[in-house]
Inverse folding.
């Protein structure tokens, strides 16, 4: 009888100890953010706007991320809306928030065919600007922006999306290209390097894993590298879906750009549950936007696959950045299908981790 009582006491004590250990482990896990799981791999970033920098989203950012990208605030048309006027407030708020909280900043972006104010391409008479005038303006813009944040932004997306969508063509027929020819790309990198010699400089594009586009991006990068242009890496935007890229495509892309001695960064990651569409369209009657268990399982599988590849290539991949915080709001809510939820991120509309999140963080370190 006495032995039974002692045995019961020890059993209860063991249960209490197990329960406490479990609670402690759960508590410790709850304090860890996405960035903490990847601290020995690469920075984990996110694209933000000024509205994200206060309240619960600010706390959420500080818990899960250690790098920030301005979603729109540093794009040319936003930060430089008129020839003699810069709008620094929103960009400053993001850089200051990052600086005050020990976060790195990726600068996005210095030269793009979209979100550029019309004045940039016109002379004083309203006619098309000359090559000399446009390059002069590009240099002035890059110097003004890069110098303002020198020492606070460690990497810049210098040129964004210069490769044409048409697989039979090379460079996009943008106004930059029409007026300056191919030279505007090299010049942008040279200006950025002169403005901040310590910043890492990247070319950034989407669909870079599709073999035909990857080859054209590689062709551009090889030309720049061979010409000794100060380019340090390629940004894979990674606007992906549960249907692409394949494992082979992603591995080949990372290897191809790395072979040029370039860093690779994942710059705008999201994983839509719908196939990629380039053109905007209206939502079709009855078109569903429910995250079904089947779609979520496919998303878990795809996120698991790409992060396995990222970790295996941690010597080549120097940053991974998500494009928006959670499914509560993403740019895909309005593009390509207005009003359709794409559920592309690791956190749901309540900022809670989804199944894919746990798949991404529960891995064995090598």
């Amino acid at each position: 009888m006495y032995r039974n009582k002692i045995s019961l006491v020890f059993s209860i004590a063991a249960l209490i100890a197990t329960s406490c250990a479990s609670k402690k482990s759960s508590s410790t896990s709850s304090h860890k953010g996405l960035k903490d799981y990847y601290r020995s791999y690469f920075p984990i970033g996110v694209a933000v706007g000024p509205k994200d920098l206060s309240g619960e989203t600010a706390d959420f950012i500080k818990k899960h991320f250690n790098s920030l990208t301005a979603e729109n605030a540093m794009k040319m048309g936003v930060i430089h809306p008129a020839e003699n006027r810069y709008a620094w407030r929103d960009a400053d708020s993001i850089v200051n928030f990052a600086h005050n909280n020990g976060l790195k900043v990726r600068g996005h972006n210095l030269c793009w065919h979209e979100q550029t104010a019309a004045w940039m391409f016109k002379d004083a008479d309203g006619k098309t600007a000359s090559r000399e005038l446009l390059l002069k303006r590009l240099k002035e813009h890059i110097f003004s922006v890069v110098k303002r944040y020198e020492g606070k932004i460690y990497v810049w997306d210098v040129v964004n999306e210069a490769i044409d969508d048409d697989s039979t063509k090379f460079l996009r027929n943008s106004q930059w290209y029409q007026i300056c020819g191919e030279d505007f790309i090299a010049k942008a990198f040279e200006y950025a390097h002169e403005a901040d010699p310590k910043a890492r400089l990247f070319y950034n594009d989407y669909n870079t894993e599709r073999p035909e586009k990857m080859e054209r991006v590689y062709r551009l990068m090889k030309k720049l590298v061979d010409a000794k242009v100060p380019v340090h890496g390629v940004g894979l935007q990674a606007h992906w879906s549960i249907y692409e890229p394949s494992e082979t495509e992603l591995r080949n892309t990372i290897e191809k750009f790395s072979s040029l001695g370039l860093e690779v960064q994942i710059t705008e990651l999201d994983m839509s549950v719908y196939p990629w569409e380039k053109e905007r369209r209206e939502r079709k009657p009855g078109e569903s936007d429910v995250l079904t268990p089947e779609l979520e399982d496919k998303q878990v599988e795809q996120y698991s696959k790409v992060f396995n590849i990222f970790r295996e290539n941690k010597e080549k991949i120097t940053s991974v950045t998500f494009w928006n915080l959670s499914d509560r709001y993403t740019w895909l809510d309005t593009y390509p299908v207005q009003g359709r939820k794409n559920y592309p991120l690791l956190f749901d509309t309540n900022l809670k981790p989804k199944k894919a999140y746990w798949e991404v963080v529960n891995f064995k370190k090598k």
Observations:
- Confidence is low (pLDDT under 50) at residues 1-28.
